Amino acid sequence: MKKLLLICSLVFMAAFSLLAQPANDDCANAIAVNIGDVTEFTTVDATNEELLHLSCFGANDSIMLDIWYTFTAPEDAVLRWSNCGTAEFDSRIAIYNTTSACDAADENLIACNDDGPTACSADFFTSEVLFAVTAGQDYVFQLGGFAGDDGIAAMGAGTIALTQVENIPANTFCANAAVVELGTGQAFTTVNALTDGPDHDGSPCFGFGSITAVSDIWFTYTPDFTGFVEWTTCDLVDFDTRLAVYNPNSACPPLPEDLYSCNDDGGGCSGFSSELIFAVVAGETYLMRLGGFDGSGSGTFDLTMVTPPDPPVNDDCASAISVDLISAEQADELTFLTEGTTISGTFINENYQYPICLTNQNGGEFSDVWYSFESLGNSEINLQMLATGEDEVPATNFYMDVFASCDNQVDTSVILNSCVVVNAENSFVSQIMTGLPEGENITYFIRITTRLTSDVPGSFAFQLVGDIISDTKDPILAQDLELFPNPVKNQATVRFTLTDSRKVNAYVTDVMGHQIQTHQLGLLSSGQQQFNLNTNELPAGIYFLKLSSGSAQQTLRFVVL
Hints:
The chain is mainly beta. The protein folds into four domains: 19-164, Jelly Rolls (Sandwich); 170-306, Jelly Rolls (Sandwich), CATH 2.60.120; 317-472, Jelly Rolls (Sandwich); 479-560, Immunoglobulin-like. The protein is 4% helix and 42% strand. It is built from two helices and 35 strands. It has helices spanning 2-20, 328-331, and strands at residues 31-32, 38-42, 64-72, 77-82, 91-98, 109-113, 128-133, 138-145, 157-164, 178-179, 183-189, 214-221, 227-232, 241-246, 259-263, 275-280, 286-292, 298-306, 321-322, 338-341, 366-374, 380-388, 398-405, 408-409, 419-422, 428-434, 443-451, 459-465, 479-484, 491-498, 502-510, 515-524, 527-534, 541-549, 552-560. Strands 19, 21, 23, 24, 25 and 27 form a six-stranded mixed beta sheet that branches.
């Protein structure tokens, strides 16, 4: 009897479950909709008929617990399908161009959306998408929910509307790209623009779960000079922009591999606005794309001829600056600080390796500089780093991480604590890196990075503290190296002592590593030496004096008033 009751209960539950499923739970039972319809829906108790992996979503790339609709276009038009602010869960939607019912495959995808414009995310992350239709063509619409890493899918009820869109920007289609010239304050809008450009999966310019520039508009630019151009919406717009430039003479729409230059978030630009500098050749025509991260808006942009700022001399790993390991006693002296900056650093986004201690590695642009050091047989080294800025307030966040070679980060499961984070809350960090091969003198590389998505490039100082093992390192070049007065106005005296006779050169560099002065001191005898350093032509700021003799060198920091 109990067995019979159990069977009856299971049958009843199964029947109830089937009855509870939405009528259009599967594509074969898709409900027809028309322009102007506002349709009530629910995805509660919907099933996953087919987990399509959609290219426009990036991570967690399927629409879960989906329901289906069909539509036949009565005329050529641009339409909006939206549950923006009218649904009670985190929705996702997709539109397919089909030749037969339910031919909803990724290759037929024409538009999709996870989170609509900012207004759509006030209470729930609801969705809307704009798309062009052709008279007589059949389309399939898919509506479902987002699923997090835990696999739990969002579901709920609401309404969704299909409406015709007017006032579409003429250059929303690449084929209708507007010709643009140099100039500032050039007004534009992407409101009611479609997305007509390619996806760029794997490019840090197109990260954070969005691999395209949505609601894009297009321009072409043909310079009459060879040089560099800056294109910027920095602080000039009311939405989160993305900029992309494609190779000269690219077809419309361009291929993903035609991407020439791009930017999502410019360093120090409010509201995640954008800026980029790209090289141009006279007579070549460049295709330019302006869109958004997740929505549309209006503003102005500047397109100007520029001379790019000189990057730091150690902008790439091949030009890494060699720094010395110092003792704990030397660490207390400011003389042995290594100072640098990420200002004007360039960024190569191909195969970029994110800092290990960066928690969000989904995208972004970066500015980084490089240093190298010898471990001198130490099994552990103290990494000490300070963010510097006006009034001792940190200018930015920095990430210091260690590489075994220029393109290989160290194994952080073996070499522990090899990534350091310095920020406004922790402007000075002292961290012991362990696991280095004891007794071996190995060259490592240090990369110091600013993430431009959230921070402004700035200045920093650091020290590498360990035991100085004499049989693995050249002796100190000079003893008692000093420069006075420090700070200096017009002229300073440099004094040092040599333990043996040698040929010595002196160099003055700025904080970016650019060589400002060269002093060939010639062959000097052992004992105390002295020379005068003329600083009256140096702008006020921080500089470094470097003594060099063969492979031996020594550096001293000074300030010009």
